[in-house]
Amino acid sequence: MFIGRNEQLAVLDELLEGLQTRNDRKPGHAILIRGRRRVGKSRLVEEFVQRANVPHLFYAAAGRTVEEELRLFVAEVLASDLPEADSFRGVTFETWDTALRFLVSALPEDGASIVVIDDLPYLIDKDPGFEGTLQTVFDRFLSPQRVLLVGIGSDLAMMEMLNDYGRPFHQRATEMIVPPLSPAEVAEMLELPAAEAMDAYLVSGGLPLILAEWKPGWTMWEYLEWALQRPTSALLVSAERALAAEFPTEAQARLVLSTIGGAGERTFTTIGQRAGIQATQVTRATKLLGEKRMVDAVRPLSTRKSSETRYRVADPYLRFWLSFIEPQMPRIERGGGLEVLERIREGWSSWSGRAIEPVIHEALDRLRLPLGPKAAAGVVGGYWTRTNDVEIDVVIADRPEVAKQIYAVGSIKWKGERPFDGHDLGELLKHRGQLPGADGTTPLVAVTRSGYTAGTVPDLHVLGPEDLLEAWRRR
């Protein structure tokens, strides 16, 4: 069952329709698709190709030598349904330039076709001249054809650079980011109520491979009981495989990632202390993790400048895996999955209360609450001090870090089944008075998993799990 991705499929359908109907001398088009590993990029494109029902080639690079990649490329062309694919029989190539030029002879003379190159960064890594080759062949031979060239990659930084100014392929391709499945799509796929769907999202991160083995209707605890007793389950192996591909030689970056995710260390100093490495090594590792979009560096949001940077793992699934699974893998492999399940139960309330915050921030950013006539599109973050004597879950402002105007201040109550009560409201009012840029008229936001019993106050917005899912359903 293929769930979601309607927005991405619509873009691909529109590009294909455009090259079928354009009458200029260069109807061909290229698109570069990026997203985190195992997020379903290839599956999305496979679904698009199947629905398109036009001749196509789907070639996936394997990270091998140029000679071996070219051999595999020929084999994939021969196995494709391109009308002149048989012209590749018995042919060998020494360079990508000759192989891609020869590919044009296999394309249909009339009508559209699709050429997919999956794991494009592998080819660039093995052949530094591949970018220039792709640009030349696309400009001279592919763009005059009714062909849609699709490049897919998980190395986010490299895929972004391909279209940058000064790079050979600059301004030649549309760009698409494939995110994980949203909490709303998780709810639909697993047939779960809103609060339980949010739990499932924190565990799965919206990764299709995990959700595919999660039976509809199963609660998070039912799925975890099943997955933790199967060492080959997607829940256990997806992160390990993705990290092995991302950091084949970067041991320190991998160590820092585990320290941030598993140990819960969030400041520069505590990361270095816990990991046992020097400041220069922490700097190098956090920079690499940021480039790979695996770690976010966030600062307090208010009208006052702050340098209190905190680091957090960007992907919900990876946050869960580093916290609960990686440290217990030896126990799981010895058959102790049920023991690990009990450890997750013990730590779940505290962990999920913090892990849900960036998810709720994204939901609030999408919802665009009615916060008064002066509130324009802004940003959502949090606020804290160096000593943590003031911590505010939600701050909505006009711009990042040093804001000019605070639109709203909020609190998140997601632990257990206790509703947002009068005590929580009192704390929120107190924190509003401690936030630089806020005052007694600043609107309030209460996000609660289990209801609200605190009474009515002016300019208060109360949001529950169903309201949060609506943030993803609106688009």
TrEMBL record:
Residues 321-416 form the DUF234 domain. Coiled coil: none annotated. It comes from the Bacteria. Keywords: ATP-binding, Nucleotide-binding. Pfam families: ATPase_2 (PF01637), DUF234 (PF03008). Transmembrane segments: none annotated. One of its GO terms (molecular function) is ATP binding. Residues 16-208 form the ATPase domain. This is ATP-binding protein. It comes from Nocardioides bigeumensis. The lineage of its organism: Bacteria, Bacillati, Actinomycetota, Actinomycetes, Propionibacteriales.
